[in-house]
Amino acid sequence: MSRPSTSRVIFRLLRSDWRSYVLAWFQWLCFHAAPLPVGWVLKLILDRLTDGSPGLPVVLLATLLGLEVARWSLFVSAAFQWHGAWVGWLTVPRVNVLSSLATGTGPAAGRLPGSSGEAVSRFRDDAQDLGLVLDVWLDVSASLLTSIVALTVIASIDRTAAVSVAVPVALALGLSAWLGPSLRRWRRAAREATAAVTSFIGDTFGSILAVKAGGAERAVDNAFTTLNLHRAKVSRTDQLGSELIRSLGYGTGEITIGVVLVLVAGAFQRGELSVGDIGLFASYVTVVASLPKWVGRLGAYQRQADVSVDRLGELMDGDRAAPVQQVTTYLRHGPPVPEHQPLVSDGLRQLDVRGLTVRHPTSGRGVEDVDLTVRGGELVVITGVVGAGKSTLLRGLLGLVTPLAGEVRWNGSVVADPSTFLVPPRVSYLPQVPRLFSETLSETILLGLPPDQLEDALWLACLEEDLQRMPAGADTLIGPRGLRLSGGQVQRAGAARALVRRPDLLVVDDLSSALDVETEMRLWERLRTAGTRTALLVSHRPHVLAIADRVIVLHEGRVVSDG
Amino acid sequence: MARVRGPETRLLFSMLRPERRAATGVLAVLLVALSLRLAMPALLGRFVDGAIAGRSIDALVQIAGMYVAAAVIAEALQLVVMWGSLHLSWRAGNRLRERLLRHALRLEMAWHGKHSPGQLIERIDGDVEALAIFFSNVLVHVLGNVVLMIAMLGVALFIDPRAGALLVLSAIAGGFVLIRLRAAAVPAREAEREANAQLYGDLEERLGGLEDLRANGAGRYAVHRLHVNSSRSWHAARRASFLGDGSYAVAAATFAAGSVATLALGFVLHDRGLLTVGQVLALFRYSEMLRQPLERIADQLKEFQKALAGARRASWMLATDPSITDGPLGAEALPDGALAVRFERVSFAYAADSEPAVRDIDLEVPAGSHLGVIGRTGSGKTTLGRLALRLWDVGEGRVTIGGVDVRELRQDVLRGRVAVVTQDVELFRASLRENLTIFGARAVSDDELTGVLRRVGLSTWLDAQPEGLDTQLEGSSSLSAGEAQLLAFARAFLADPSVVILDEASSRLDPKTESHITAAMQDLLAGRTAIIVAHRLATLDAVDTIAVVDDGRIVEHGPRDALAADADSRYGRLLRVADRRSIIDEVVQ
């Protein structure tokens, strides 16, 4: 695979909506350049002050005021335009990456980093890092053009002045460019230290029972203090670094004005330079002196974007350019209402798994050379001890992890990509701990489906009694990740979500950890009589084994009994 | 800003107090830096006037040199101020973070039930962040800029009263516009933040549940939601920009108008011979310099609101007293060895208006004996253990351990003697060692740690970990549910407890694994009192007595053997239903 450079990738992002970029660039260029005419008019006014001509220079003063008003109006327009463009730059990689993760082929979840918090930071911080480069390109180019004009004007008035501006600014530029990369390193360290602190707080209170029951309050407090000390140290460095870059802009300006004054003192005293020229130098120097600040940021952001492009690419199988490919963003009018394809399939006659070998990505354990068959209407149960590979087998079969060997056949034909084929309406999967979303119960079950099957699914999942006790029935908000529901309710809501899609085959990973026997048996009874008839499940409940058509026993990753 | 004496301001002052000396030092340096800044336009004026008056080049170069020196020193001092204020604000902020964490740890489980970890991150870190930023900024920006502005206006008044008065007027006008218009933009900024929070919150959930989404064919729906949220964010960002940047621009234009007016007045006064050219130039520079401090102060007003809100929430949290507090008795109140547990006429409800979770429970578990508790989900089994550990306080009656009311004991003493293992294993993103000892709360040697892991049957697993006890656990992703459960057993037994409460602790284990560790468990439970809550009856084969709980009451209690033999007992009936379990024994063997 070719490895496009970071600048190329970001340029492609620019092209995704080049009109808004050019528009933003042009407006910012005008805004950056606005001090040039303002400074020139100021020079004319100051010269009038010294040449002794009487009366107020009304026209010049009015022009000055008009220029200022124009400049700030331009600012509003540029900022307005820019904010829209900025959201667009962030949206393109987000949509591409999420589409690939949620709808692309292959075991997408394996591409995600450990925690979902870390994953979100890629969508937020890494996408922003790309946007920041586009932004800083805009500022650097506008500031550079303006500076060149400003320096040319200064040089046309006095060569020495131009040199005395250029030298300190060049020094600051060098310092800034040198500092830029460290700046991003410091920022990263500070971010990591902050994440360590927040995730420690989250873990502590997420595990408050363990902390309290273990009497570990003081130990936790000490660990927290250590993390805080480290964070304070790296964050201070980071903040001081940013201040240094800012100071390079402001401070360089003031110092340079002084240097110019020193060097032009003679010419000024001899009358070769007017007061207006001095005023012009002072205002133009400020323009030129802002260049190092932008260049410092360019170095910093560009370096950071290298990492960010990699990190976004990792989410898309290592393709660095994939996150920035052309995509419609629908920002102005919102996306069109999604169409629902009716859920139809040809029905399941037989599912065959042949020679399936799967390894758990982190622990390396798994199943070896597994054969199994599920015929239409059968209830097949997989059982075995902890670590026998039951869950891994299901996940490999469904393509949630990539199998090392083996094939899956649906009604006799080989399934090329299980992760996109073995989905509703063919297969629904209910994991051990289903993830619900913080919305209403019906929304988290339907996930965009029309609600006509909802009633049936709620009944099949044995949720009807629970619903009566909820304040707003199926429209009750269930809290973050369904926190307001009990463990059993979460699992049954997950079951409803699988069943509302009317799958030909239901794949279930152990219901027993949160459901009592009676409820689980009632659920199977309803399912067998009124819902999906074919099911493949992991369980070690005797009751479930008793109603199974076939039981497959796994031991140390191999089938030891089938029948 | 009118209110000065709320609990939030007291909190701000209590943060500042230990930093008084450092703050005074920083402020002193800042004043020097500012007076240098103040001198610079005046030097420029003198330079111009000097040249017009025909003074020598040396004199002019000297003035210009002073200008350079002032600029360099002012900039350096500004960095020193920044360094100092960062130091003290981080110290003060971390001090408050630690105070809040410590306090939250002392609050009872009922309180934690109402406050999610996410909320606490916001309280302990987010709010304090706002406070600390404000803290360092008040010093550097607000105080410094107020002083700078007043001094600047003073100098202008000194140069010429009329011009000075004009500057004061334009500062007031600009400041007014700045503050009023910015306040109008605040709701739009809030809406923008809200839209972004919605976008990221939604993404976080969808990414966390990615497999669920894919497996349910709902991937496209997730992308659709991202589009909807992005579009909202786009509209919110543009609106906030229009109002926010618009008000900024209006204020900037007002200041520019003030500068032009100053220049015009300077012209008139110069014509009448009241001002020199240099003075006009200096006044003009001052009028331009006015904008920045006012902007910074206006910025801080917004931060001030945020900081006050944060301080208010922090002081509320600190004002919440734990309802469960330490009793007077220490370790000496309890005898060594196993301890009896007694529930005496205990009733308890989780909230005042909810149904009681347990009613009028009388139950004794003699020292060293093992009680099995069974009953349907929600019958109150779990509550018994929580009351014994005093994670909640009973409503009526009392719970005693070794004959002592749990409310009479210090909490650390009680929890040093009573251990609990629940079905939800709580692991930290930290090393295996830190997970077992809970960040060193138990002083245990590595040998003891590996010993306990071996006893619960995790030695093979441990051997497979490349870094042994230093292996970092990433939540529970590197462990199967069953292994995590075994780790929880190990953690509980490290404390060498006198009473052990196992709450559905083996429900995630399959029968084979469970029977494997049953032997180890018997060994570990020997000589300790145990309360074992289970819905799998096989787990309770070895207990001494059985209690059946239904709807918060004990409906049956007696020796296990007697109940098992009694055909009419509830336990006996359940046992026969479960007898089909021989099926699994057949297939597994």
UniProtKB/TrEMBL annotation, chain A:
What protein name does the entry list?
A: Heterodimeric efflux ABC transporter, permease/ATP-binding subunit 2
Provide the protein's localization.
Cell membrane
Q: Return one GO MF term.
A: ABC-type transporter activity
This protein's GO cellular component annotations are:
plasma membrane
- Chief place where the protein resides: membrane
* Keyword Glycosyltransferase (UniProt): no
Organism (species): uncultured Acidimicrobiales bacterium
TM region(s), chain numbering: 21-42, 132-155, 161-181
Q: Gene3D superfamilies recorded for this chain? A: ABC transporter type 1, transmembrane domain (1.20.1560.10), P-loop containing nucleotide triphosphate hydrolases (3.40.50.300)
Per UniProt, what is the membrane topology? Multi-pass membrane protein
Q: Which residues form the ABC transmembrane type-1 domain?
A: 115-290
> What are the entry keywords?
ATP-binding, Membrane, Nucleotide-binding, Transmembrane, Transmembrane helix
InterPro entries in the record: AAA+_ATPase, ABC1_TM_dom, ABC1_TM_sf, ABC_transporter-like_ATP-bd, P-loop_NTPase, Type_1_exporter
- According to the entry, every stretch annotated as the ABC transporter domain falls at 348-563
